[in-house]
Design goal:
InterPro entries: AlkB-like, AlkB-like_sf, ALKBH6, Oxoglu/Fe-dep_dioxygenase_dom. This protein is an alpha+beta fold. The protein has a single domain (3-133, 154-231), classed as Alpha-ketoglutarate-dependent dioxygenase AlkB-like (Jelly Rolls), CATH 2.60.120. 16% of the residues lie in helices and 29% in strands. The strands form four sheets. Strands 1-10-7-14-5-3-2 form a seven-stranded antiparallel beta sheet.
Amino acid sequence: MDIEEYRIHDAPPTMYYIPDFISEDEEQHILSSIPSNRWINLSHRRLQAIPARLSATNTLLASPLPKHLFDPILPRFKDLNIFQAAPHGVNHCLINEYLPGQGIMPHEDGAAYWPVVATVSLGGAIVLDVSEKSRRSEPSANGRDEGQGGAGKGKQWKILQEPRSLLVTSGDAYTETLHGIADVHADYDLNEKTVANWTLLGSMKGVIAGNGGTNERTTRVSLTYRDVKKVSTVGSKIFGRTKT
Ligand SMILES: O=C(O)CCC(=O)C(=O)O
Ligand SMILES: [Fe+2]
């Protein structure tokens, strides 16, 4: 399988979208293996950081990913050479859960990670909003800096993430854009003109087209796989094993 076939040509370089990356059985197995007692509640979603959250210096106390997060996903990443150039391969997975009406503010994942993120979606479909970071522009005639926060100036893209799909974000798409998810109960106006990965979509293309361009949100769980650049194994000798 050559990942180039899955490149999103209408998005910044370089994003890839693979529908049906895992099967329905695999999806159910992963969902049922996520422990129910390890969620960290945030105001607009809940998450689990596996194997651990990063320290204040963005260091990961490394330990292997649990089997349900490893198989069958990591061997497939290897086949696609997604983390081929990353120093440790994949060593971290964030699990985010969004109920209808929940989302995540526009942000960048930043320099703690090797600049590749691979997102597997489970449960419901959701739109990821990607926007060009507004550049710190030259002071304008009235002397105000209209860089960060200058409304609606940067280019924007919508990526529809179907359940069981894989989205890979790398290169400029990782370093030069922000991504977020609107806290809405439905995504509207989805079609071949507004959705950057429309031609790559699987079965939801027909469903959404038949639904007048609307995606009703249901609970979605995302697995975001990354390589944390700074890793500590010494810590385990000093502090003993951490609970995972
Ligand atoms: O759920 C997603 O697809 C995005 C999550 C995200 O942006 C993050 O965890 O940094
Ligand atoms: Fe993110």
